Amino acid sequence: MHKVIFDTDPGIDDAMALLFLHKHPEIDLVGVTTVFGNAPIEITTRNALYLGEAWNIPAPVAEGAGQTFDPARGGAYWPTAIHGHNGIGDVPVPDALSREKDPRPAFQFIIDTVRAHPGEITLIAVGRMTNLALALKADPEIAGLVKQVVIMGGAFNVNGNVSPAAEANIHGDPEAADIVFTAAWPVVVVGLDVTLQTVMTSGFLAEMVASGAPEIRLLSDISQLYIDFYKTRVADGMVVHDSCACVYLVRPDLFDTRSGAIRVVCGGIADGQTIQKPDGRGFPPGAWDGFPSQKVTVGVRPEGVLEVIRAALVDARAA
Ligand code: BDR
Ligand code: CA
Question: How many domains in the chain?
Fold first, then answer.
C-alpha cells in the first residue's frame, strides 16, 4: 500500500487525480494539502473540501501557501480560461460545507505526517512546490524520512505552457521548485514531455460516465470547460497532467526516465525553466554539481496510463 500526501491546487485535472488517488486500491490517501495556483488559496482549499465531501474521501485537508516561497516575488495570475473562475469549471459549489480544514498549515501537516510514518510517505505534488519547500525549510530532516516525491511540473525536451521556457507549476514559484529538486530526497518529475501526450478524449470520459460510477458524473461536469479550452489547442479531450504523476506511482513501467541533477532558472526571460544535467554527460564545473540525481520522465505509454485511470475510477472500490 502506498501512503500518499497529495499537494494540489484544484483545479480540474487535480480533481481527477484526487479521485484516482482515493479510489486506487493500492493507494492510501493520508492527507490533502492545498496551494494557490489554479485559483487563490481560499478557493483551492474550499474545492478540496468540497470534492472530499462530494466523493466521501476521508483524508484530512490542510490549507497551504497563498503566496510564493519568497513573498517578494509577488504576482499572481489565475488561469480562469482553463479552470474557470472557481477553479473547478464553474460548477456550483454549495456555500456551506460539512467539512472543516485541518488546523495546521500544510507544511506542518506534511512534517507531522512524515515524522509519524518515517520512510513510508510519498508526496505527490501537482501545484506549485511552495508547501514542500516550506516544509523543508522548517524541518530539513524530513528529506531523509520521505519515501519518494513525485511532481507534476516542468518541461525538459519541449516548450513550456506559460512561456516558451516554463511550465505553470514551476513558473508559479521557481525558487520553491529549485529547493525541492535539489533536496536530498528521491524526486521524479512528470512534466509536459509526457503529460501533453496523455489526452483523455471526451468520448473516453463519456464512456466512464456511462459506466454509472456516480462520482464520475461530477468529474465530467467539472471537466467540460477544461476540455473546451484544450479542444482548440491540443486535442478534443483532457490533458490529464496531474493524473500522470499519480499513475507513475503505481505503474512506473509506463514511463521512461532519465537521471541527473535538476535546477530551475530563477529570474530573467527563462524564469521557471527546468533543466536537467543528464548523468554521465561531462560539462565544466557548474550550477548542477553536487546536487542529487533525480528522475525526469521523457517517454510515456499514454494508452496504458489512461487505462490505469479508467480501471481505478470505474472498477475500484466504491467511494
Ligand atoms: C499544471 O498546471 C495546472 O494548471 C494544472 O493543474 C497542472 O498541474 C499543468 O501545467
Ligand atoms: Ca494542478
Answer: 1
For residue 13 and ligand 1, the question of a CB distance below 6 A is answered with yes
Provide the whole-model pTM. 0.95
Q: What is the pLDDT of residues 214-251, one digit of tens each?
A: 899 999 999 998 888 887 777 778 999 999 999 999 99
Atom of ligand 1 at shortest distance to CA of 38?
4
Residue length, the chain?
Answer: 319
Per mean pLDDT, which range of 203-207, 310-314, 315-319 is the poorest? 315-319
Q: Could you read off the pLDDT of 144-173 as tens digits, one per residue?
A: 999 999 999 999 999 999 999 999 999 999
Q: 276 to each of 136, 183, 259, 279, 305, how far by Cα in Å? A: 21, 14, 8, 9, 24
CA of 272, nearest ligand number: 1
Please report where in the chains the cell 508559479 appears, as a residue: 172
Q: Is 108 in the pocket of ligand 1 (CB under 6 A)?
A: no
Residue 117 annotated to the active site? no
Which domain CATH number covers 305?
Answer: 3.90.245.10
Active site residue 9: yes
Which ligand has the nearest atom to the CA of 159? Answer: 1
Contact in structure between 93 and 47 (CB atoms under 8 Å): yes
Residue 68 · residue 42 · CB < 8 Å: no
Please give the residue range of the domain that contains residue 199.
2-315
Between the CA of 210 and the centroid of ligand 1 the distance, in Å, is: 27
